[in-house]
Amino acid sequence: MAYYRPDGMEAFAAEEGGFTLLVTRRGRIYERRIGPDDFVTLIEAGVILRPQVSRVAVYKWVKRGKLKADIVDGINLIRLSQIGRAHV
Q1: Cα–Cα–Cα angle for 78, 24, 49, nearest 5°?
Q2: Is 8 exposed, middle or buried (0-12, 13-18, 19+ CB in 10 A)?
Q3: How far is CA 1 from CA 4, 57, 71, in A?
Q4: pLDDT for res 3
Q5: Among 11, 44, 48, 85, which residue is least crowded by beta carbons within 10 Å?
Q6: Residue 30's pLDDT is what?
Q7: Quick check: helix, strand or coil at residue 86?
């Protein structure tokens, strides 16, 4: 019997103030540690703020200027420290 884990992302708070993201793709689990001053994508920000905030809400915050995003190689990146301030 095989165990199937659906694709997706989960975020867990880390002791140092950052997060640990577990990303599941095609049955493989990848772990990404995010420091308190590191950058995250809009989708990762939505996962960190879940269930109160969706990734669409994070996108709208960036579009309206409530969150400052830096564009790197065509991808919007947000500093993790800004996410906590925008959510309050």
Answers
A1: 35
A2: exposed
A3: 10, 40, 45
A4: 67
A5: 85
A6: 92
A7: helix
Q: Which residues pair with 71 in a beta bridge?
A: 76
Residue 76 dihedral angles phi and psi, to the nearest 5°: -75, 125
Phi, psi of 69 (to 5 degrees): -115, 140
Q: Report which DSSP code applies to 84.
A: H
pLDDT single digits (tens) 22-79: 888 888 889 999 988 889 988 888 888 888 788 888 889 889 988 889 888 988 899 8
Coil, strand, or helix at residue 83? helix
Helix (H) or strand (E) holding 9: strand 8-13
Residue 15 — φ and ψ, nearest 5°?
-65, -35
